[in-house]
Amino acid sequence: MLMNTPLTRRTFSLGSACLAGLAQAKKSPRAVGVVTAPSSLGLRPNEKGKEPGTWRAPEVLLATGLAEAVSARSVVKLTRQHYDFAEQSGTRIRNGNTLRAFLLELATTVQAELAAGRFPLVLGGDCGVMLGCLYALRRTGGRGLVHVDGHSDFFHPGNYDTRSRLGTAAGMDLALATGRGEALLAQWPGVEGPLVADEDAIQAGEREAEQPDYAQGYPDVMKTAITRLTIQQILREGVSRTAERIVQRLSERKLDRAWMHVDLDVLDARVMNAVDSPGSPGFDFAQLRSLLRALIASERIAGMTVCIYDPDLDEARRFATPIVQCLAGALRA
Question: With a threshold of 0.85, does the pTM exceed it?
Answer without folding.
Answer: yes
